[in-house]
Amino acid sequence: MPRPLTVVLINDYPLVLAGLATMLWPYSHRVQVLERQLGSGHGHAADVALIDTFGSPVTDTRVLEVLRTSPTSRVVVYSWHPPAVASPDLAAHDRFSGFLPKQGGPEELVAALERICAGGPLERPETARPVSSASGPDWPGRDQGLSERESEVLALLGQGLSNEDIASALFLSVNSIKRHLKVAYRKMGVASRTQALLWALDHDFARTGTDAPGR
Which of 6, 117, 125, 156 could disulfide-link 46, Cβ–Cβ 3.0 to 4.6 Å? Predict the structure, then answer.
Protein backbone atom coordinates (compact mmCIF):
# COMPACT_ATOMS: atom_id res chain seq x y z
CA MET A 1 0.00 0.00 0.00
CA PRO A 2 1.52 3.38 -0.99
CA ARG A 3 2.23 5.88 1.78
CA PRO A 4 -0.01 8.95 2.09
CA LEU A 5 1.37 12.05 0.44
CA THR A 6 2.39 14.79 2.87
CA VAL A 7 1.06 18.34 2.59
CA VAL A 8 2.07 21.61 4.26
CA LEU A 9 -0.84 24.07 4.54
CA ILE A 10 0.20 27.73 4.35
CA ASN A 11 -1.91 30.73 5.42
CA ASP A 12 -1.75 33.52 7.99
CA TYR A 13 -4.98 32.60 9.78
CA PRO A 14 -5.05 29.63 12.22
CA LEU A 15 -8.80 29.16 11.71
CA VAL A 16 -8.32 28.81 7.95
CA LEU A 17 -5.53 26.28 8.47
CA ALA A 18 -7.66 24.32 10.92
CA GLY A 19 -10.57 24.33 8.48
CA LEU A 20 -8.43 23.01 5.65
CA ALA A 21 -6.98 20.30 7.88
CA THR A 22 -10.48 19.30 8.98
CA MET A 23 -11.66 19.18 5.38
CA LEU A 24 -8.82 16.82 4.47
CA TRP A 25 -9.02 14.67 7.61
CA PRO A 26 -11.43 12.06 6.09
CA TYR A 27 -8.71 11.45 3.48
CA SER A 28 -5.92 10.88 6.01
CA HIS A 29 -5.21 7.49 4.43
CA ARG A 30 -4.25 9.44 1.28
CA VAL A 31 -3.03 12.79 2.67
CA GLN A 32 -1.04 13.55 5.82
CA VAL A 33 -1.42 17.22 6.77
CA LEU A 34 1.36 19.28 8.37
CA GLU A 35 0.13 22.76 9.37
CA ARG A 36 2.16 25.97 9.27
CA GLN A 37 1.64 29.67 8.59
CA LEU A 38 3.06 31.76 5.79
CA GLY A 39 6.24 33.41 6.97
CA SER A 40 7.00 30.90 9.73
CA GLY A 41 10.34 29.99 8.24
CA HIS A 42 11.40 26.58 7.04
CA GLY A 43 8.56 24.08 7.06
CA HIS A 44 8.52 20.35 7.34
CA ALA A 45 9.74 18.30 4.41
CA ALA A 46 6.57 17.43 2.50
CA ASP A 47 5.46 16.38 -0.95
CA VAL A 48 3.34 19.50 -1.52
CA ALA A 49 3.03 23.00 -0.04
CA LEU A 50 -0.54 24.25 -0.49
CA ILE A 51 -0.82 28.05 -0.20
CA ASP A 52 -4.36 29.17 0.67
CA THR A 53 -4.85 32.75 -0.50
CA PHE A 54 -7.55 33.68 2.06
CA GLY A 55 -6.80 37.16 3.43
CA SER A 56 -3.38 37.17 1.78
CA PRO A 57 -3.22 38.07 -1.91
CA VAL A 58 -0.37 35.85 -3.02
CA THR A 59 2.24 37.65 -5.08
CA ASP A 60 5.05 36.09 -7.07
CA THR A 61 7.41 37.23 -4.33
CA ARG A 62 5.55 35.23 -1.69
CA VAL A 63 5.31 32.09 -3.79
CA LEU A 64 9.00 32.29 -4.71
CA GLU A 65 9.83 32.71 -1.01
CA VAL A 66 7.88 29.53 -0.19
CA LEU A 67 9.71 27.74 -2.97
CA ARG A 68 13.01 28.97 -1.56
CA THR A 69 12.41 28.21 2.11
CA SER A 70 10.23 25.11 2.04
CA PRO A 71 11.92 21.79 1.26
CA THR A 72 8.89 20.52 -0.65
CA SER A 73 8.65 18.84 -4.01
CA ARG A 74 5.77 20.96 -5.30
CA VAL A 75 4.06 24.27 -4.49
CA VAL A 76 0.40 24.88 -5.33
CA VAL A 77 -1.68 28.06 -4.84
CA TYR A 78 -5.28 27.40 -3.70
CA SER A 79 -7.60 30.30 -4.64
CA TRP A 80 -11.15 31.21 -5.59
CA HIS A 81 -9.95 33.26 -8.57
CA PRO A 82 -6.64 31.88 -9.82
CA PRO A 83 -5.05 33.51 -12.87
CA ALA A 84 -5.31 31.62 -16.13
CA VAL A 85 -1.53 31.41 -16.48
CA ALA A 86 1.44 31.76 -14.16
CA SER A 87 3.92 34.59 -14.47
CA PRO A 88 7.20 33.82 -16.28
CA ASP A 89 9.08 33.73 -12.96
CA LEU A 90 6.76 31.10 -11.50
CA ALA A 91 6.36 29.14 -14.72
CA ALA A 92 10.12 28.81 -14.97
CA HIS A 93 10.38 27.15 -11.54
CA ASP A 94 10.29 23.36 -11.79
CA ARG A 95 8.66 22.95 -8.34
CA PHE A 96 5.76 25.35 -8.94
CA SER A 97 2.80 23.20 -9.99
CA GLY A 98 0.23 25.92 -10.59
CA PHE A 99 -3.03 27.38 -9.29
CA LEU A 100 -5.88 25.23 -8.01
CA PRO A 101 -9.37 26.79 -7.77
CA LYS A 102 -11.41 26.29 -4.62
CA GLN A 103 -14.59 25.48 -6.54
CA GLY A 104 -13.92 21.75 -6.27
CA GLY A 105 -14.67 19.76 -3.11
CA PRO A 106 -12.17 17.92 -0.89
CA GLU A 107 -12.16 14.82 -3.10
CA GLU A 108 -11.15 16.92 -6.10
CA LEU A 109 -8.45 18.65 -4.04
CA VAL A 110 -6.95 15.37 -2.83
CA ALA A 111 -7.08 13.87 -6.32
CA ALA A 112 -5.37 16.95 -7.77
CA LEU A 113 -2.57 16.78 -5.19
CA GLU A 114 -2.07 13.08 -5.87
CA ARG A 115 -1.94 13.75 -9.60
CA ILE A 116 0.70 16.45 -9.06
CA CYS A 117 2.86 14.18 -6.93
CA ALA A 118 2.61 11.49 -9.58
CA GLY A 119 3.94 13.92 -12.16
CA GLY A 120 0.61 14.54 -13.85
CA PRO A 121 -0.95 17.86 -14.91
CA LEU A 122 -2.97 20.09 -12.62
CA GLU A 123 -6.53 19.79 -13.94
CA ARG A 124 -9.13 22.31 -12.85
CA PRO A 125 -12.70 21.20 -11.98
CA GLU A 126 -15.13 22.03 -14.77
CA THR A 127 -17.91 23.25 -12.49
CA ALA A 128 -18.30 24.38 -8.93
CA ARG A 129 -19.49 21.69 -6.55
CA PRO A 130 -21.12 22.38 -3.20
CA VAL A 131 -19.08 21.55 -0.12
CA SER A 132 -21.00 20.64 3.01
CA SER A 133 -20.56 22.84 6.07
CA ALA A 134 -19.37 19.81 8.02
CA SER A 135 -16.52 18.98 5.67
CA GLY A 136 -15.79 22.34 4.06
CA PRO A 137 -13.17 24.96 4.87
CA ASP A 138 -13.49 27.38 7.75
CA TRP A 139 -12.91 31.13 7.97
CA PRO A 140 -13.11 33.95 10.52
CA GLY A 141 -16.66 35.17 11.11
CA ARG A 142 -18.30 32.07 9.68
CA ASP A 143 -20.13 31.28 12.92
CA GLN A 144 -21.46 34.86 12.92
CA GLY A 145 -22.94 34.44 9.44
CA LEU A 146 -20.24 35.95 7.22
CA SER A 147 -19.69 34.29 3.87
CA GLU A 148 -16.12 33.40 2.95
CA ARG A 149 -16.01 36.29 0.48
CA GLU A 150 -17.30 38.78 3.07
CA SER A 151 -14.77 37.44 5.56
CA GLU A 152 -11.93 37.80 3.10
CA VAL A 153 -12.92 41.40 2.27
CA LEU A 154 -12.98 42.19 5.98
CA ALA A 155 -9.60 40.52 6.49
CA LEU A 156 -8.04 42.69 3.78
CA LEU A 157 -9.76 45.77 5.20
CA GLY A 158 -8.06 44.98 8.49
CA GLN A 159 -4.69 45.03 6.75
CA GLY A 160 -5.22 48.66 5.80
CA LEU A 161 -6.18 48.11 2.16
CA SER A 162 -8.50 50.57 0.47
CA ASN A 163 -11.61 49.40 -1.37
CA GLU A 164 -9.69 49.83 -4.62
CA ASP A 165 -6.79 47.70 -3.34
CA ILE A 166 -9.15 44.98 -2.12
CA ALA A 167 -10.94 44.95 -5.47
CA SER A 168 -7.63 44.55 -7.26
CA ALA A 169 -6.47 41.77 -4.93
CA LEU A 170 -9.70 39.78 -5.32
CA PHE A 171 -10.28 40.52 -9.02
CA LEU A 172 -13.61 42.20 -8.25
CA SER A 173 -15.08 45.62 -8.95
CA VAL A 174 -15.02 48.37 -6.32
CA ASN A 175 -18.82 48.31 -6.31
CA SER A 176 -18.74 44.60 -5.48
CA ILE A 177 -16.43 45.29 -2.53
CA LYS A 178 -18.79 48.00 -1.28
CA ARG A 179 -21.73 45.59 -1.52
CA HIS A 180 -19.86 42.88 0.38
CA LEU A 181 -18.93 45.36 3.10
CA LYS A 182 -22.50 46.67 3.37
CA VAL A 183 -23.85 43.16 3.88
CA ALA A 184 -21.02 42.27 6.29
CA TYR A 185 -21.61 45.42 8.35
CA ARG A 186 -25.28 44.50 8.71
CA LYS A 187 -24.43 40.97 9.85
CA MET A 188 -21.84 42.28 12.32
CA GLY A 189 -24.13 45.02 13.63
CA VAL A 190 -21.64 47.81 12.93
CA ALA A 191 -21.91 51.09 11.05
CA SER A 192 -18.35 52.16 10.28
CA ARG A 193 -14.93 50.90 9.20
CA THR A 194 -13.53 51.50 12.67
CA GLN A 195 -16.30 49.49 14.31
CA ALA A 196 -15.81 46.72 11.76
CA LEU A 197 -12.09 46.52 12.52
CA LEU A 198 -12.73 46.37 16.26
CA TRP A 199 -15.30 43.62 15.67
CA ALA A 200 -12.81 41.70 13.54
CA LEU A 201 -10.17 41.77 16.27
CA ASP A 202 -12.65 40.05 18.59
CA HIS A 203 -13.55 37.34 16.06
CA ASP A 204 -10.36 35.50 15.01
CA PHE A 205 -9.22 37.94 12.33
CA ALA A 206 -5.79 38.49 13.88
CA ARG A 207 -3.00 37.32 11.57
CA THR A 208 -0.15 35.27 12.98
CA GLY A 209 2.30 35.20 10.07
CA THR A 210 3.62 38.69 10.76
CA ASP A 211 7.07 37.96 9.40
CA ALA A 212 5.87 36.78 6.05
CA PRO A 213 7.75 38.10 3.06
CA GLY A 214 6.30 40.85 0.97
CA ARG A 215 4.65 42.72 3.86
Answer: 6
